[in-house]
Design a protein that fits this description.
alpha+beta, 205 residues, eight-stranded antiparallel beta sheet, 5 helices, Alpha-D-Glucose-1,6-Bisphosphate, Chain A, domain 4
Length: 205
Amino acid sequence: MRKWPVLVFLLLLLTPLLFSGRANDARAAAVFSRSLSAAELAKIEAGEILLDSQKFSTPDGTTRGRALAVGFIRAGKDKLINTLLDYTSYPQFMPRMKKAEIYLTAGNVISVKFTIKVLVTVVYYLKHTIDRAGGSITWELDPSHKSDIRDTTGSWYFQPYKNGCIAYYAVTLDSGYAIPGWLEDYLTKRDLPAILRALRTRVGG
């Protein structure tokens, strides 16, 4: 297993990129959520972030990782979506983000070039589809540009709840390389919540 491609995969896992049965095609960008028990609702209202992670195989036999973080934010979905659409401000509050540049806008689709850096610089291009009425943003890799990873899809989904929203942040990744399960689980538990907390802090919720 080569070191640097693995690091690229891990770096992307830590970066703002988004599980309900609405997603049947593992490749397509889709919104993911899940039902929450009364106990889980009490936990997120108290500030806790819930985490789910799993591996699955695509029809072509590729193994991919999928992760979901769920938390409560005291802000409306419009404010949350507007904050996430302010891509150029990401370096101010998103972990490891060095630069975000919008290079194309077409209707409700916004294409953004992201640059992150921890030990190495990683550049990737994402196409975001915005559904304000549905409270979601989904994304997929833009195949018209060369990115430093093979594939990713994901979503933010905001479900109105009491005086704010339940936020679902999900990501599906494909680096093309084998990743030790224990290391992926460790990074998921440590860093996925950091992205959701960063958004919560940004909006003051």
